[in-house]
Amino acid sequence: MQPVTSMVGLSEVLEALVDGILSVDGIGTVVWANGAAERVLQFRRAELVGKAYAELGLPFAIEPDSGPKDYEWNGRFVRVHVSTVDPDARLLQLRDVTEHVQAEAELSRSRVFLQAVLDNVESGIVACDETGTLRVFNDATRTFHGLPPEPIPADEWAAYYSLYSADGLTPLSKEEIPLYRAFSGEIVRNAEIVIAPVNGTRRSVLSSGRALFGPDGRKLGAVVAMHDITHRKHSSSRIRAALRQFRTLFNDGPIAYHEVDCEGIVRRVNRAECRLLGRSREEIVGHPVWTFVAEEDQEKFRVETLQRLSGLWPLRCTEREYLTASGERILVELHENLINRGGGEIVGIRTAMLDVTERKQRQIAQAESAEIRGILERIGDAYMAFDTEWRYTYVNRKAAELARKPASDLIGRCVWDEFPEAVNTSFYTELQRAMREQIPIQFDNYYAPLGKHFDNTVYPSPSGVGVFYRDVSERRRTEDELKNRSIELARKNAELETFASVVSHDLQEPLRMIGGYAGLLSRRYSGALDEDAREFLNFVTRGVERMDRLIKDLLALCRLEEATDVQMAKVDVGHIADFVAGNLSLAIEDSGAVVETRDLPVVQFHPTQLIQVLQNLIGNALKYRSAAPPHISVRCQRIDGAWQFAVADNGIGFDMRYAEQVFRPFKRLQRADDGGTGIGLAICKKVIESRGGRIWVESTRGVGSTFYFTIPDALPVRD
Prior knowledge:
Largest sheet: 6 strands, antiparallel
Mean pLDDT: 83
Shape: flat
Strand content: 25-35%
Number of helices: 21
Number of strands: 28
Structural class: alpha+beta
Low-confidence stretches: 1-6
Strand order of the largest sheet: 7-6-11-10-9-8
Distance between the termini: 145 Å
């Protein structure tokens, strides 16, 4: 071999290398670096050569080692191999292995992720490589085989478990093990085996697997997945046992039972039903189920059965009369359940039958007693019953509450022993009389120990007596209060009538005299009076007129109460409105008003009072008008059980704060010289409310007002 004698030739060789080369002499100075070293270290050659290695800040140790080491430098990974050139000089071989390190890290993460996935799968997963050596298995596999948590060599697994065929008795040969079969090229599907750990629970598993091949067709190994079916097998076993038990119960049970198909044909029947109907199995199976009931019920039963089978008729416990083979009628209680396929399709009905003929007879007798007791417990009256020795036989909840003792403490005890203070009272006397004469008696009594009044009704019978009674103390107090109020009301009404008489005669008489003399004075001496005197005399005349109207309005308001019991009549509200418009015709013409009425009904009302209401409302609309000509409408609409009227205008309106005040006597929102007395709306309110109606107003200042009132179809009941 020709020796290298030229450093120039060696440098060219080193420059051509992919790896970086860095030469450090015996005193630690970098004496040479190739281009690859510049790229790996990210230094220019001038920044390396001639510099002390220790000052470069490189993390690479330059002491010779057994092999290459990886370092991280400037975000990259560098593999460094240090060689000894002479006893002191060092040669560093530098290789950028960043991609290789990252690939290994990604591979490691993938392995960890894959193992985590496998360990979180409930199925056991096991795989071998092309040599048959176990390489992959998860926690489920370890659990199935009873392996310890610490890693053990695959060739030691067999010491921890045994494998058996599906019967759990026959050991598996090597050739029968699912992984071996898959490795041998067989596609294994749902092979059932039993895994019996040395320390653990036996498991039945279904194994499926196949061989693994690479893209080039080279065999890589085999994989098997194992699914634990232990619980399912146990459940299947229990289901089979339950089915055997069901068949036994079905055929030999004491309850009659049959099944019908989707057309109502009997397909199964047990021995109990055959005995109940006195028929053989052959006489029942294959026949419509409705042919075994009473003839008059067969069509109805057929329709109901088919409706149940179509899902249109709810299943419920029913009773039906069946006919036995001998023609005897028996009452049967039917308990039905639909037979459904997996998709919910109805394919039949299962029916259990109970002979309730005797039970029904007992129930009828008991139901009457139970129904009566239920009613007695729910009623608001107290009820107690006694036998002929006056011993309690029944006490309802309310009676026990009034007696202040539980019913259980009273049953069987003598009432006169329990309540000796009741002896010789009217209660004692009337109960004795009812028992003696055997006639119902109703009476009131006051029971001093309780301080209460009771209303009692006694019903005797030869076997005892029953007493309904209720606490009427509150009613008695109310009646007394009403009686006292009625007396007081009669007294006040008498005073009111006296007052009305005084107003009608005693007050109006001097008023007429004042008005008469004022008029006489005006006629005879008007020429002798100056302007002030005539004005004063005018004030007197107007005051008398206003006082006269006020007295008449007060009298009308007071006498409304007297008119409330006047016989009602059918009144055409349209005619009443026209009549009122005629009364107000001068005011309507003077103001240029339009009064509009639409679709007004016939109602039950007092005609004169309805005239008062409409004349006050329309008159106010004319009186309190705006600058525009008045437009007044009277309309009506139907509401629940009543007619609702509305009288609307375009007048001056008012603030809704005063919507309640306008209906009070003498409460006036406008000027005092408008000719009114402040009584009109109070009269309207009293008339409407006395007939069970309601009156209210909605108004906007400067826009107008609408007064509403209702007239019910039914008149209120008056005491």
